[in-house]
Amino acid sequence: MTLDREQVLRSAAALLTHKSTATMDEVAKAAGIGRATLHRHFAGRDALVKALEDLGIQAFQAALDAARLDEGTSEEGLRRLIAAVEPSAGLLSFLVTENQLFEGDQVHEGWNRADARVSAFFRRGQERGEFRIDLTPAWLTEALYGLIGTGAWAVQVGRVATQDFQYMIVELLLGGARRSVEQ
User: Fold this and answer.
1) CA distance 82 to 144
2) What's the pLDDT score for residue 104?
3) Where are the beta strands (DSSP E) in the chain?
4) Mean pLDDT of 43-59
5) What φ, ψ does residue 146 adopt, rounded to 5°?
6) Per residue in 23-39, pLDDT tens?
7) Residue closest to 121 by CA, chosen among 67, 159, 180, 50
């Protein structure tokens, strides 16, 4: 029987987004495989998290592509992005909390590409007069990531209804980022 690596990663992601401290034994059980099999494919937690990072980056890049951020207004692009990222929001939230991914020069180049795309989106919105210019694109990007992570966590623990995820993130971010007539 061959191991479906992506299925193992998706099972690990599902578990770790709900229980970030899960052991490798718990990950193996969630994936329906033995601990030895898991360790043959992922030498330890760090190797598993690195593989999850690759999966998360792929999911986020796909969400950015699906959002068509260059089309329509910035608000429309933001709404499409949040809708596209929602299925992987829990995984992205987990990855952001894994500090070893962001130490020094060890940051995965995929995150840098994603950050550049999101920052460029906010910069275009500023240039069009749709977003405030007193908030940097880098700050708006970090605020977006924070809202996605917090929204995912709030849904997972039952504090927020799943159907409210997109609305709450978009409305809160736009409420603070939208450029008013006075500016």
Assistant:
1) 9
2) 53
3) none
4) 90
5) -60, -40
6) 999 999 999 999 999 99
7) 67
Torsion of the alpha carbons at 81, 84, 86 and 90, rounded to the nearest 10? -100
Question: CA-to-CA distance for 176 and 19, rounded, in angstroms?
Answer: 31
Place of tokens 């991914």: 101
- For residues 31 and 43, give the distance between their C-alpha atoms in angstroms, rounded to a whole number: 16
Query: Residue 100 carries which DSSP code?
Result: G
Which tokens go with 51? 């593989």
Close Cβ partners of 75 (under 8 Å, ≥ 6 residues apart): 130, 170, 174, 178
Q: Residue 170, SS3?
A: helix
Name residue, tokens 């990663």. 9
Residue written as token pair 């840098």: 112
Return the closest-CA partner of residue 87 out of 50, 108, 121, 56.
56
What residues are paired with 178 via a beta bridge?
A: 131
User: Which residue in this structure is represented by tokens 């690596």?
Assistant: 5
Q: By 3-state DSSP, what share of the chain in percent is helix, strand and coil, each rounded to 5?
A: 75, 0, 25
pLDDT digit string, tens, across residues 76-135: 999 999 999 999 998 888 887 775 555 555 667 888 899 999 999 999 999 999 999 999
The alpha-carbon radius of gyration of the chain (Å, integer) is 18
